[in-house]
Design a protein that fits this description.
By secondary structure, this protein is an alpha/beta fold. The strands form two sheets. It has a nine-stranded mixed beta sheet, with helices on both faces. Strands 3-2-6-7 form a four-stranded mixed beta sheet. Strand 11 and strand 12 form a beta hairpin.
Length: 335
């Protein structure tokens, strides 16, 4: 029986990471605690998460649980080759990545506050802006039709929308992680099988008018009801499964065929070191679980555990765990 196929169409960035005790004020210069560069981009991060969470790092004889393919663009510079090599090492198929002559590879300037592990990110798209719907269409070819397509919003919106419509015509399930959050055409929500977003993105896209974000989310019943009300707005637009990650407050998910939603508590960690790739790890783990026949609830719980392992380490792709490092595999996904 062939492996489930996951196609990720998205961004590849070089991450320039600075760690600091606090953010500088306007006009202020601070000495950072450290600087590093690494592989990133939401598309590439999610591809790495799908690949690592579908295979063992230490035991090559362990059966794989998914075939992972990445489609995107890099520049003809040192960073482009470095990113492709990084994906290859994690088990991602990279034949769908194009090198664009005369373009720079996308970059992300990441500032991490050491005490909280929270981050702020500035992105320059570079070659990511060159990916077209025609190029992305290779992921929808008849001879290698994926079981799910994973998309984000760090590539041109027109490309994302064209891919979604084409995938829907072919009956391919779509998972959208709308980051960075952009206003989407109302009709596009009807194309979505899975919508995974954080609290900020949910408030923006859902045009929440029920109160400030800080009063909306939490782990008490009133706040959970508020989050579910927001989920219902997306269901009304046509989204089948809605997942909102809430950081320290856990995850809330809702399906269109069940009344009410469900809250999953955050996994306790010894120390939050860096949250940069937590959301991307969550998306990757969720996708692996879903293509292996796991229900939304089981997929959310496992993805929550995988993301918790990520925040315990520094970096983006370097912090993403392998399947050996995540406990409590949902039934149906084997080591």
């Amino acid at each position: 029986m062939p492996l489930p196929q996951i196609a990720i169409i998205g961004s590849l960035n070089t991450d320039l990471i600075t760690r600091t005790t606090r953010l500088p004020h306007s006009g202020e210069t601070l000495t950072a605690k450290s600087f590093d560069h690494g592989s990133g981009g939401k598309g590439a991060n999610q591809a790495v998460a799908c690949a690592r969470l579908s295979r063992s790092k230490n035991d090559p004889s362990t059966p794989l649980t998914a075939d992972v393919r990445m489609t995107g663009c890099v520049g003809d510079d040192f960073f482009g080759g470095f990113l492709i090599e990084s994906l290859d090492k994690s088990g991602v198929q990279t034949s769908g990545i194009r090198t664009i002559k005369g373009e720079k590879t996308g970059t992300a300037v990441v500032i991490v506050e050491d005490e909280s592990g929270e981050n702020r990110i500035l992105i320059h798209p570079g070659a990511n802006a060159c990916i077209s719907a025609a190029a992305a269409g290779t992921s929808l070819s008849v001879d290698s039709c994926p079981d799910i397509i994973v998309l984000q919003l760090e590539i041109p919106l027109e490309t994302v929308l064209d891919v979604m419509r084409d995938a829907k015509e072919r009956g391919i399930p779509i998972l959208l992680n709308p980051a960075p959050a952009l206003k989407l055409p109302e009709d596009i929500y009807r194309e979505l099988d899975h919508l995974i977003m954080n609290e900020t993105e949910a408030v923006m896209l859902g045009e929440w008018d029920g109160g400030e974000k800080n009063g909306l989310f939490g782990n008490n019943n009133n706040n959970n009801n508020n989050v579910q009300s927001l989920c219902e707005k997306f269901h009304e637009k046509g989204v089948r499964n809605v997942v909102i990650t809430l950081g320290a407050n856990g995850v809330h998910y809702s399906t269109h065929h069940e009344k009410g939603g469900n809250h999953v508590a955050a996994v306790k960690v010894a120390k939050v070191v860096d949250t940069t790739a937590a959301g991307d790890t969550f998306v990757g783990a969720y996708a692996v679980a879903v293509v292996n026949g796991i229900g939304v609830g089981g997929a959310v719980e496992w993805a929550n555990k995988a993301a918790a392992r990520t925040v315990e380490k520094e970096g983006a792709q370097d912090a993403i765990p392998w399947v050996d490092e995540v406990d409590g595999l949902p039934q149906g996904v084997r080591r």
